[in-house]
């Protein structure tokens, strides 16, 4: 499943949002072996394990949106809405921080 989250940030700030969201996922979902891999500075691919199944996804920084996709095994399709809402919630939180000027490069 695919989702697009609009933003009004410049591309560099949007990349920072994606980076911070991924860092938050790593911390929050460590028990699920959340494993991100940056393909380039605007795209991250990730995977995590739930009940013995591996879920794979990616997030792409675009000029006016952060697009993500999540490949959900058939047995987990009933829970795919929950998974995408968790991802979207975290990304929107970081977009809000960036729009309020609360996001700094570390």
Features:
TATA-Binding Protein, 5-stranded antiparallel β-sheet, single chain, alpha+beta, 106 residues
Secondary structure class reads alpha+beta
Number of beta-strand segments: 5
Domain count: 1
Approximate strand percentage: 25-35%
Q: Looking at the structure, what is the overall shape?
A: globular
The CATH H-level superfamily is: Kinase associated domain 1, KA1
Task: Describe, in plain words, how this protein is organized in 3D.
The protein is globular, with a radius of gyration of 13 Å. The protein has a five-stranded antiparallel β-sheet, with helices on one face. Strand 3 (43-50) and strand 4 (53-61) form a beta hairpin. The protein has a single domain (2-99), classed as Kinase associated domain 1, KA1 (TATA-Binding Protein). The protein has helices at residues 11-28, 80-99; strands at 2-6, 35-40, 43-50, 53-61, 65-71. It has 106 residues and is an alpha+beta fold. Helix 1 packs across helix 2.
List the helices and strands and how they pair.
Blueprint: E1 2-6, H1 11-28, E2 35-40, E3 43-50, E4 53-61, E5 65-71, H2 80-99
Helix pairs in contact: 1-2
Brief summary of the model shown:
The protein has helices spanning 11-28, 80-99; strands at 2-6, 35-40, 43-50, 53-61, 65-71. It is an alpha+beta fold and 106 residues long.
């Amino acid at each position: 499943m695919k989702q697009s989250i609009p933003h009004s940030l410049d591309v560099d700030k949007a990349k920072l949002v994606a980076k911070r969201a991924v860092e938050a996922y790593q911390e929050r979902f460590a028990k699920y072996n959340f494993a991100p891999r940056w393909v380039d500075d605007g795209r991250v691919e990730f995977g995590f394990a739930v009940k013995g199944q591996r879920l794979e996804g990616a997030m792409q920084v675009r000029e006016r949106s952060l697009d993500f996709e999540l490949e959900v095994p058939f047995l987990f399709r009933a829970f795919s809405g929950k998974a995408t809402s968790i991802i979207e919630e975290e990304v929107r939180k970081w977009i809000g921080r960036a729009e309020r000027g609360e996001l700094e490069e570390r």
